[in-house]
Amino acid sequence: MNIIGGMERVVCVPGAKVPIVKIWDPEYQVACDMNVNSTLALDNTKMIKTYVEIDERVRPLAMIIKHWTKKRVLNDAGELELGITYSDRV
After folding, report:
1. Are 85 and 76 in contact (CB under 8 A)?
2. Distances from the Cα of 85 to the Cαs of 23, 31, 48, 82, in angstroms?
3. I want to staple 69 with a disulfide (CB 3.0 to 4.6 A). Which of 2, 29, 32, 75 is the partner?
4. Torsions phi, psi for 55 (to 5 deg)
5. Helices 58-71 and 39-54: crossing angle, nearest 10°?
6. pTM (2 decimals)?
7. How far is it, in rounded angstroms, from Cα 59 to Cα 46?
8. Given strand 30-35, what is the order of strands in its sheet?
């Protein structure tokens, strides 16, 4: 098992449009994709962080949405026809 910096299952996705690293955070039990060269991703992260700081209900809601989109294969650009994720559609 790849364990780097406390993260488990660290896997590079070389065929992605932008470089992607998939990780698993065992402490929070959350899967995460990290990318580089995407300023939109930074803006989205800052926006979500702000929402979570303003209202404690946002994090559980976001986790429900993530679960819902994952079950419908809406959150994996590699699996989508045009490589567009759900967050790109909003």
Report:
1. yes
2. 18, 16, 16, 9
3. 75
4. -140, 120
5. 130
6. 0.50
7. 14
8. 3-4, 7-13, 20-25, 30-35
Residue 35, exposed/middle/buried by CB under 10 A (0-12, 13-18, 19+)?
middle
- Amino acid, single-letter form, for residue 18: V
User: Helices in the chain by DSSP H: which ranges?
Assistant: 39-54, 58-71, 86-89
- Both tokens of 59, joined, read 């994090």
Contact between residue 24 and residue 6 where contact means Cβ atoms under 8 Å apart: no
Report in angstroms the alpha-carbon separations of 55 from 16, 37, 45, 50, 66.
33, 29, 16, 9, 18
